[in-house]
Amino acid sequence: MFGAFVDQHTNLEKYSLSALAKLKLASVAQLEVGNTASLPLMTTQELQQENNRLHRQIKAIITNIRRNEKKSQRFQELELSLINSGSLQEWAHLLLNHYRELFELQAVTIQLIDPSYEMRHMLEQDGVKLDEHPNLQFADHPFEVPAGYPQPEPYLGEYEHEQHKKLFHYLKATPITVALLPLVRKNQLVGSINLASQEHHRFVPGTATDFLERLSNIAAACLTSVGNSHRLRQLGVTDPLTGANNRRFFDQRLNEAISFVRRKQAPLCCLFFDVDHFKQVNDTHGHKAGDKVLKEVAIILRKNLRTSDVLARYGGEEFAALLVETDLQKADEIANRIRENVEAKRFVVDKETTINITISVGVTCINISDAMEADTGSIAEALVNAADERLYEAKHQGRNRVVTGLLELVFAEEESFQLDPPQGYVEQVSDSA
């Protein structure tokens, strides 16, 4: 496509130069031999003026051709970079920063439809702080996107404040013209790339959109590609049903977390979550309904935990989380917020049925220092066992509650360590299980 584009305009450039040369020859001939028969109504001065005017026109055409050639080369370079992008972070950087600078735009924003928070977690895992990037936006559902969102054709035209303000809300200067390019995969809208300019004639309705449509198509395909690559990397450490990490990953990260807090002399909390009366859900509504419940619980857990926290499906209806550099009070607040969110949600198990469920939570925290001579494996085992015991207490005391406790490792004289019983407390909540 680009080769044909360049060849076409190169030929036009040669033709224009040839025409200019012929015109100059005709002008010289008329001036030298007085050949007024071919141009009987033009004086020498008029002929020279016409010659200059045509020269300026052809020069402008040639300049525009060369500008378009450079533009096509820049598009091609951007497309190749997008195709070679290895992560969602790199994909977004190319569009938000490189594309904006390359084509001298006022702003580029991206809005992605991300109902499962998958893309947000992908970026956060790469160290991206989403609140520092107002030009990268997310919607939980397609109907949450602002009015004027492109479906499915690109929109080019003047900036309409009520329709477009959400897409460019952080800009100090109001855009004059905008282009909204839909990202579509398998006939489904997955987001859009939104361009803003301070030029009146930059994005005009009815103008050719070949380059922009090609860019949005390639960007959408590359978005799918980086997502698939990420999922492939996660297969070995991810629970296929809920998308949470699996137990093997949790055990690995637990040892890493203990080593980290030992160096930092910081607290580490372990939380165990268990869906109350989950067997009844399966027996009454079927295993498919139970799977839906587990998926929704995992989503609630992810929404309420930080990116630095580790979440895993530990087994069956049980989930585990590690909160690094988090004290017992903060862990208790997080656990109760999650418990309340689960209790308040109506879980849809089929078209006509919704149910309420509750969870029980056991929380154990430990403060580890370099002075501790206990090995990492022993500390990990003690922490997990203590959190599991607190979970058992929550179940025994009526479910739908949080039980917390501190884990203290006490060293005997012979340098071996003993596990003291956790000093837990029970938060009084209504038993709605």
Structure description:
By secondary structure, this protein is α+β, with helices and mostly antiparallel strands. It has three domains: about 1-85; about 90-235, GAF domain (Beta-Lactamase); about 240-425, Alpha-Beta Plaits (2-Layer Sandwich), CATH 3.30.70. About 50% of the residues lie in helices and about 20% in strands. The protein has a six-stranded mixed beta sheet, with helices on both faces. The chain has a five-stranded mixed beta sheet with strand order 2-1-5-4-3, covered by helices on one side. Helix 2 (about 45-85) packs antiparallel against helix 3, helix 8 packs across helix 9 and helix 9 (about 285-305) crosses helix 10. Residues about 1-15, about 20-25, about 25-40 and about 410-433 have low confidence and may be disordered.
Tally of separate domains: 3
The averaged pLDDT comes out at 81
SSE string: HHHEHEEHEEHHEHHEEHEEEHEEEE
Strand content bin: 15-25%
Question: Topology, please?
Answer:
Elements: H1 2-33, H2 44-83, H3 88-102, E1 107-113, H4 118-125, E2 136-139, E3 155-158, H5 161-164, E4 177-185, E5 188-197, H6 210-234, H7 247-264, E6 267-275, H8 278-285, H9 287-304, E7 310-315, E8 318-324, H10 328-344, E9 347-350, E10 353-355, E11 359-367, H11 376-396, E12 402-406, E13 409-411, E14 417-419, E15 425-426
Parallel strand pairs: 1-2, 11-12
Antiparallel strand pairs: 1-5, 3-4, 4-5, 6-8, 6-11, 7-8, 9-10, 12-15, 13-14
Helix pairs in contact: 1-2, 2-3, 2-6, 7-11, 8-9, 9-10
